[in-house]
Every structure is written in structure tokens, then in C-alpha cells.
Amino acid sequence: MPGLEYVTADLDVKDPVDLHFDVTSVPLSDATFHAVICNHVLEHVPDDAKAMSELRRILKPGGWAILQTPISSSLTRTYEDFSITDPAKREQAFGQKDHVRIYAMDYVHRLERAGFNVELFHWRGEKGHFGGATNKFGLNEKERIIIASRSIHQQLPGGFD
Description:
The chain is an alpha/beta fold and 161 residues long. The protein has one domain: 3-Layer(aba) Sandwich (Rossmann fold), CATH 3.40.50.150. It has helices at 48-57, 87-94, 107-113, and strands spanning 9-10, 19-20, 33-39, 59-68, 79-80, 101-102, 117-121, 145-149. The longest helix is centred in the N-terminal third of the chain and has 10 residues, at 48-57. The chain starts with 8 loop residues before the first strand and ends in a 12-residue tail after the last strand.
């Protein structure tokens, strides 16, 4: 969009990416961005709580993040087993050889524990802009859009908003 500055980042991809870093240790100042899009990353990160905390930290107060990850509708609790290290066994357990977990809807609670306010966006119910049932943006019909936001209040000493 005109007037917006986009910054891309990845741990492994070197080109065309602006920044290279581990999402559990983001080398940026607090409250850097108005918005963050982290698409299908957290299921690869062993310390997802630290990554979520870092994503919240770099958001400006009042900022928002879309933190998409695969979420199983058949699980009631996120499944992770860090003793599984063999790529073939990870693929069998988590659906992909480089995944370390399968999230369930407790993903929302994990984000809340990191300090986010969380909203589930039901794009199919949106007529107009998102196309509703016409799905003009080609969104996965089974995937929930999770919008995490940071409170507009500045963080006070001691970590309280």
C-alpha cells in the first residue's frame, strides 16, 4: 500500500529479506511496529512463549499482529513432544518435519499469557471487503484468523500494562 513501510524478516532465507534474526531474540527496539504479520512461524519455534513475548514487545501500544499458525480442530490442547527429534518422526507426529508442535485452540490462551488481547476474525461473515463466501482473497476456509493486539497503555515498570 502506498505510504506504508514494510520490513521483512526471516531466520534462514537470505534474499529478498530485509532482516535476519531468531524470533525469540528480536534485535529491534521496544514498540517498533504498528503491525506485525507472523505467518506460519511459531509452530517451528521450540520456545514459542519467548517468541510471542518478543512479538508483543516490538508492537507499539495499540498495535496489532496477525499470528497465523496451523490449529487442529480435533485437539483440545496443543500437542508438543520435544523428545521427538527425528525429522521423519516429527513429520508423523506434527505433520511436517520441521514443526515442533500442533496447536489447538489453547493457542489463544498462550497468546494471552504473552500479554496480547486476542480476537478471532471470522472472515467468511464479512460481506464486502473480504468477500464473504466468495473468498476473493483465496483464504483457507478452515483457517481461523487470529488478531493479537497490544494494549494502548504504555507498559509500566514491573511489566504491568
